[in-house]
Structures are given as C-alpha cells and as structure tokens.
Amino acid sequence: MSASTDRLIWIIGALREHCAWTHALTHRDLMTYLVEECYELLEAVEDRHPDAELRGELGDVLLQVVLHAAIARERGAFDFDDVADTLSAKMIRRNTHVFTPEGTLRGSFPSSTAEIIASWDAAKAAEKAGGEAPSAVPAPTAGLPRNLPALMLAQKALSRIDRAADARLPAGLEPAAAARELGERSAAVLASEEALGDHLLAVAAAARGAGLDAEAALRGAVARALAGTPGNPAS
C-alpha cells in the first residue's frame, strides 16, 4: 500500500475507535450512503465536473469501501488489504487475454473486442463452476443484481442474452421487432439519445398520470421476459 492509502486506513480506524457516531455504523447503515455517493460520482462524470470535484467524489466512494473493510476487520472477517488482494486475483482470473494464471503478462494480446468479450465470458463461466469448464451452461442473466434500477436491469439482461451462444432474445424484443412496436415514431424516437430520453420521460409522465409505477412496471416486464428465456430459472 502507498503512504496515502495507509494514512487513510489509519484515519478511518481512529474514527471507528474514538468517534461514537462512526463507531456505531454497521454494514447495513452504510448501504444508503454507498448508493448516494455512487450517484453523485455518476453525476460528476456525466456533467463533466472539474477534475477536483471528480477526485472528491471518487474519494467519497472509496470512503465507503474503507469503512466496510474497517467494520469487517473489527469482527475478524477481512481487512482492506484482503479486499485489494481479492480484486487483484479476480482481475487476473477474468482477464485471461492479458494475464497468465500466475499474473504475468502474456506475450501477445487480442485486438478485437469480440475476442476479449468471449475470453471474459469463458473465464467468468469457468470461475462460477469452480474453476472447471461448466457441465451445464448457467442462465445468461445469472448474477445480475436484483436491485438494479429497472431500466439498467433491462438493458443488461438483454445484452447478456444477446451475447450468450445458446440463448435467444424473447419474442418481440429483438431490436427490429422492438422498433416495430414503436410504430411510425420509431425512427424519431431512436434517432438519438436525446430523442429516446424525451420519449422515456413522456412514458414516465403518462404512467404517473395514470397512477402507474413505471419502475415497477418495467421490472415486472423484465421478470416476465426472463421467465420465457431458456436457461433462466423460471423458464
């Protein structure tokens, strides 16, 4: 660890020991703070805030990691070094196109994104199966956090299914079919992210006017679509 990282860990440890409020924090208490800090970081990136603000927001997210590690250390589970070591090992395992199993650089590297994604997916599948080639292919959406925002969940689920060799997008959700569902407005709605955003906002406004929860509606639609996708538990 660098001197800066060591000092940060010491500061948080001192706060846990001598600040009653910080000492009382639990993993569950920090959940809301973590979500809030991540959204503030996203806003800083999206709105292109000055680098000094971006640095500060990154620090706020890092604070959450250090706090969680400090709480875990106190109960003898793991510490910040363990978190860093676990992440390093994971990056080496998952990025077999860059690293050898020993963590050294390979002699050559793939140049196409398709090769990199295929290598990542294969390494991840082998890891989930305990380090060996899986005998049964897991559902392409296995492991997606259930608490993702509905729109993000929908996009990630569709992307994973589309990339899977043995899965097909649910009927009506292929890009061309989905565009047809929009009817005559499809060209205008899909012309740009701005136009698409305006359309989604209008849908949310209409749902609100009808007394419907757009977030819950989309989450339910994703669940129904996944239930009809081969390889998923509900199919």
UniProtKB/TrEMBL annotation:
InterPro entries: MazG-like_dom, NTP-PPase_MazG-like_N, NTP_PyrPHydrolase_MazG
Domain NTP pyrophosphohydrolase MazG-like per the UniProt entry, residue ranges: 26-99
A GO term, aspect molecular function: ITP diphosphatase activity
EC numbers: 3.6.1.66
UniProt GO BP: dATP catabolic process; dGTP catabolic process; dTTP catabolic process; dUTP catabolic process; TTP catabolic process; UTP catabolic process
Record's keyword terms, sorted: Hydrolase
Record bears the keyword Hydrolase: yes
PANTHER family: NUCLEOSIDE TRIPHOSPHATE PYROPHOSPHOHYDROLASE (PTHR30522)
Protein name from the UniProt record: XTP/dITP diphosphohydrolase
Species assigned in the record: Paeniglutamicibacter cryotolerans
